[in-house]
Write a structure and sequence with these properties.
By secondary structure, the protein is α/β, with parallel strands linked by helices. It contains 14 helices and 24 strands. The protein folds into two domains: about 250 residues, Aldehyde Dehydrogenase, Chain A, domain 1, CATH 3.40.605; about 210 residues, Aldehyde Dehydrogenase, Chain A, domain 2, CATH 3.40.309. About 35% of the residues lie in helices and about 20% in strands. The protein binds NADP nicotinamide-adenine-dinucleotide phosphate.
């Protein structure tokens, strides 16, 4: 069986000792193995700081952007091969795989464009200069310089290409070398992508390192100029926030964790109109795309009490079209969950809901998958539940079920809808579907502080929106509270995490000379 090596300290290396096996989650066929035991991760981070950092910082923004463009092109060039790996190792349908790989390519391309627009500069200024003394001579200017350490990226299993690419694009453009770790179960796509990047020579030595397998003592080696960006469970995030090197060295940490994303259907939206269909399509897509294993997927569906029967019926009809099975088979619209562990966690989440809600579609997720030997695969079918009220179903607002599961809950007033959305205690994105500006004016500002993004689904955008589940590079991704308190992407905003802001204070002419070649950080 193939062993996936790690790319650290300038070469491909395999660990010794115990290995972990990557599976096809539809068939349980072993695909590859990984081991990172015995690798010197402290030396690898040091290599990034000594070799990768200076090399990346020696490049202008335009040159860093050109490297990102090359990485994006590699994904496009090798798209079919990567799709094949995602279908085999991620349980992804072809559509799911394209979502991940094309999302990665588009994000890299967007940051490549941003790099080109910043041109030959290597330094950024932040805002206008400020007169500090009686005369204009004594002056202040904020500048932004890349942190002199390594950007350590720990990614989740659900987006092996996009998750890795979106973090790497921002850090590399900001001027930091990257040490990236994909989640173990779905590492095949990430591994191949890094192989392609290394073979291409797109990046200088040390700019991209890759750990394929258990992280062992990786985070114990973090130092004060490093940065840590994590996507995954709130439990792991809590551990990482508390480790001594992070606390003791004030290592900045960005966390994307759980999220009980809500969709609210406004009372003005009539059955059958464009906004209603957009809402139904978004809910059904989010439940089933990547088998609901999307951090931005809609988990809670809030509908006016008068409309709840119609909505449940319409959603059940759409879910009825979803063929679950081996994603390698044609006609299959939803694959398995990524691992046996995730299947068991999702089943436990459904069990919690069952005691508080009634079934609308899919019961408790039992399914006979197409094209799979009986008893094989980590499958859970789409499950739509319905609560009599939010108070009768506290689990809905308390536990994320990271699979093809959502619950419909009634509300009666805009104030009640706001209260229900806020019970998620901080999310990545929630959506409100309405054309009533008075209603939107009551709901949207009142839920904004609880989210990193609010999607407004209205008539005029119904035909061109990818839905709330798609993370766009120009907009921030992250959220307060339960969602981890992080913020990624958002165009140039995302680079701030990797940059130190410093106030320069002195003679205006000297400061002007020091910043002569700097670009201004775009809004
Ligand atoms: P996880 O256990 O937190 O793992 C996430 C990443 O952290 C993986 O790369 C994992 O590596 C790594 N990791 C785990 N322990 C670590 C440690 N001590 N030091 C350094 N890295 C460590 O999460 P998961 O099992 O992948 O997913 C569980 C839940 O997380 C889901 O059910 C869902 O609720 C949530 N989730 C959220 C998002 C999001 O985008 N917000 C995405 C996916 C999952 P290994 O894989 O090698 O263990």
């Amino acid at each position: 069986m193939k062993t996936l090596a790690s790319y650290i300290s300038g070469s491909w290396v395999e660990g010794k000792g115990s290995t972990t096996t990557l599976l096809n989650p539809a068939t349980e066929e072993p695909l590859a193995q990984v081991s990172t035991e015995g690798l010197d991760l402290g030396a690898a981070l040091d290599f990034g700081r000594r070799v990768g950092g200076p090399a990346v910082r020696a490049l202008s923004f335009a040159e860093r952007g050109a490297a990102l463009k090359k990485m994006s092109e590699l994904l496009v060039e090798h798209r079919e091969e990567l799709i094949g790996l995602a279908i085999a190792n991620g349980g992804n349908t072809r559509g799911d795989s394209k979502f991940d790989i094309d999302g990665a390519a588009a994000t890299l391309a967007a940051y490549a464009d941003l790099g080109a627009s910043l041109g030959d500069a290597k330094l950024l200024i932040d805002g206008e200069g400020i007169q500090l003394g009686r005369s204009p001579r004594f002056h202040g200017q904020h500048v932004l310089t890349p942190r002199a350490g390594v950007a350590v990226h720990i990614n989740a299993y659900n987006f092996p290409a996009w998750g890795m690419a979106e973090k790497a694009a921002v850090a590399l453009l900001a001027g930091m070398p990257v040490f990236t770790k994909p989640a173990g179960p779905t590492a095949l796509v990430a591994h191949r992508f890094v192989e392609l990047v290394v073979e291409s020579g797109a990046l200088p030595d040390g700019a991209l390192q890759f750990l394929c397998g258990d992280p062992h003592d990786l985070v114990d080696h973090l130092q004060s100029q490093d940065a840590l960006a994590f996507t995954g469970s709130s439990g792991t995030a809590a551990k990482l926030r508390a480790i001594a090197p992070v606390v003791g060295n004030s290592v900045p940490i960005n966390v994307e964790a759980d999220s009980l994303n809500a969709a609210v259907l406004g009372p003005d939206v009539d059955a059958g109109d464009d906004v209603y269909n957009l809402f139904l399509a978004d809910v059904a897509r989010d439940m089933t795309q990547k088998a609901g294993q999307k951090c931005t997927a809609i988990r809670r569906v809030f509908v006016h009490a008068d409309r709840i029967d119609d909505v449940c019926e319409a959603l059940a009809e759409r879910l009825g079209d979803i063929v679950v099975g081996n994603p390698a088979e044609s006609g299959v619209r939803m694959g398995p969950l990524t691992s046996a562990a995730q299947r068991d966690i999702v089943r436990a989440g459904i069990d919690r809901l069952v005691s508080e809600t009634e079934a609308v579609y899919g019961g408790t997720g039992e399914v006979e998958p197409r094209g799979v030997e009986a008893g094989k695969g980590f499958f859970v079918g789409p499950v739509l539940r319905r609560a009599a009220s939010a108070d009768a179903a506290p689990s809905v607002n308390a536990h994320e079920v990271f699979g093809p599961v959502a619950t419909v809950v009634p509300y009666t007033t805009a104030a009640e809808a706001v209260d229900l959305v806020r019970r998620g205690a901080g999310g990545l994105v929630s959506s409100v579907y309405s054309d009533d500006r008075g209603y939107l004016g009551e709901v949207v500002p009142a839920i904004a502080a609880f989210h990193g993004r609010v999607f407004v689904g209205s008539k005029k955008v119904a035909g061109q929106s990818p839905g709330p589940g798609t993370v766009l590079p120009h907009l921030t991704h992250g959220g307060p509270g339960r969602a981890g308190g992080g913020e990624e992407l958002g165009g140039a905003r995302g680079m701030r995490f990797y940059l130190q802001r410093t106030a320069l204070e002195g003679d205006k002419t000297i400061l002007a000379a020091l910043t002569a070649d700097a670009a201004t950080l775009p809004a």
